[in-house]
Design brief:
- By secondary structure, the chain is α/β, with parallel strands linked by helices.
- It has a single domain (8-208, 220-246), classed as Spore Coat Polysaccharide Biosynthesis Protein SpsA, Chain A (Alpha-Beta Complex), CATH 3.90.550.
- Helices cover 31% and strands 17% of the residues.
- It has helices at 18-30, 47-53, 70-80, 98-111, 165-169, 178-190, 229-246, and strands spanning 8-14, 36-42, 60-63, 85-90, 93-95, 117-119, 130-131, 136-138, 159-162, 196-199, 204-206.
- GO terms for molecular function: hexosyltransferase activity.
- InterPro entries: Glyco_trans_2-like (IPR001173), Nucleotide-diphossugar_trans (IPR029044).
Length: 263
């Protein structure tokens, strides 16, 4: 599919998962979107993995000298992207071929500022959405029906946005662990006027068998979380509403969360 006078940057962040990255790249190639580039930003993977991915079909491969975390990795990739639009995808996701058929619709929504970002998937469904088109719905800034998920408008799951989004709303807070950085940015976006939308059907899926890097960030034994999951969801939501209330846009950072990259 050719988008005239447009350019799409596919930005993929990678760390030590070359086989997943290959599957991610194959899915992007299957979209057949011309006038596009693929930017892979690697966060200092092991040498054996770097040797493998150097043979992949990538337009720009950016390799960090030292591991700096997901936030810094995304920031470097955003800066390198030459496209007006960015489709972001971590290496453990594959994009659905239907994105190609809907791409023009996505670009028109972004150009009109009806939305500022369109997500392709979510771990949990939003109970309240505002239909924009047959394929895309807007996530309301606040809804009691989304009480447990209002804070989750932004996610580092695959999405499309314009590169100018980061000039308007800022880039990611560096020197942070993955969960901390994602949560801080999600609250930052929730507190802004950014309009986040989501596709009505999932257009991205996790690669089966892939293990998230975030799963190894903490040494905490998961067995301590034996209380009712519904209570955990309510407690987490209340905690994040507190973080929203206390959030300082100038200072950034979270009050009740620990940044695991800072000793």
């Amino acid at each position: 599919m050719k988008i005239s006078k447009k350019k799409i940057s596919f930005l993929i962040t990678h760390y030590n998962r070359p086989l997943d990255l290959l599957k991610c790249l194959k899915a992007i190639k299957s979209l057949n979107i011309s006038d596009s580039e693929i930017v892979v930003c690697d966060d200092a993977s092991q040498d054996k993995h770097l040797e493998t991915i150097k043979d992949y079909e990538i337009d720009q491969l950016i390799v960090a000298k030292t591991n700096q975390g997901l936030a810094a990795n995304i920031n470097k990739g955003i800066e390198a992207c030459q496209g007006e639009y960015i489709i972001y995808c971590q290496e453990d996701f594959v994009l659905n071929v239907q994105i190609s058929n809907l791409l023009q619709e996505f670009l028109e929504l972004l150009d009109s500022r009806k939305v500022d970002m369109i997500r392709f998937t979510s771990n949990s469904p939003f109970n309240k959405l505002i239909p924009l088109t047959a394929a895309v719905s807007l996530i309301p800034k606040f809804s009691f029906r989304n009480f447990l998920l209002n804070y989750y408008q932004y996610s580092d799951h695959p999405f499309i946005t314009k590169k100018s989004f980061y000039l308007r709303y800022g880039t990611y807070l560096e020197n942070t662990s993955g969960r901390y950085g994602e949560t801080e940015y999600a609250i930052r976006i929730l507190k802004s006027d950014a309009k986040i939308a989501i596709t009505k059907k999932n257009l991205a899926s996790l690669i089966e068998g892939s293990v998230s890097v975030l799963a190894h960030e903490s040494d905490r034994d998961n067995k301590i979380f034996t209380i009712n999951k519904s209570y955990l969801k309510v407690g987490r939501a209340l905690r994040l509403y507190l973080e929203c209330f206390l959030y300082n846009k100038a200072k950034r950072g979270l009050i009740t969360y620990k940044n695991l990259r800072q000793k």
